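Sanity check

After download, print the first record. It should look like this:
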Amino acid sequence: MKKNIGSVMALYPTPAAVVGAMNGEKPTWTLVAHVGILGHDRILVSLASAHFINGVIKTGNKLSVNIVDEGMLPEADYVGLVSGAKTDKSAVFEYELGEAGTPVIHKAPLAMECSVVDIYNTPGFESFICTIDNTCVEEEHLNEAGKINYHTLKPVLFEFPTYEYLKTGEVIGKCLSFKKNPQE
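Expected structure tokens:
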């Protein structure tokens, strides 16, 4: 028997990402765990309304989503800990401006440059709905077909209720490959 625990967000873990945006001539960064897929052509980045970076994103309507791996976790955790309103976080990561003008972290194995097309507000949160302008991946994380290889990339996952970082696991099967009706 399942126990009803109320209205609890239970879609964790999610990939940890560092969102970047240009604040004038310098980038600012924040750690984000609320990123999601809205369809094949849109993603959502949800941030608490009080975040400093929100105003920066709204000024330029551009952001980068830099996927966190274990090697960059200490820096990623730090930029989620301190506020950009009180601390200049521009030098935490080495970066370059991507083709779309967003700050792309050198250490990130994968980064998406995004344009904000809409903002969905809920109490205490602003969710940026974005198109993906460019996806930049370290070549070592591409397979022979040029697709992203998550076996080597190994993004860090964030589990909200316990505030823990998790490693990605092993493959348990290929999607749509079981073929047998489990009721037979």
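If your output differs, re-run the checksum step. Summary of this record's structure: The first strand starts at residue 14 and ends at 15.
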